[in-house]
Amino acid sequence: MQLTGNITPDNLMSLEAYTKWRKLHKPGIMAHRKLRSAVLGEHLNLQFESESTIRYQIQEMLRIEKIFEEEGIQQEIDAYASLVPDGSNWKATLMIEYTDIHERKRELARLIGVEDRLFVEVEGHARVYAIADEDLDRENAEKTSAVHFVRFELTPAMRASVKAGGAVKLGCDHTHYPAHMQIPPETLASLAGDLR
Question: Pick from 31, 49, 65, 177: most CB atoms within 10 A?
Answer without folding.
Answer: 49
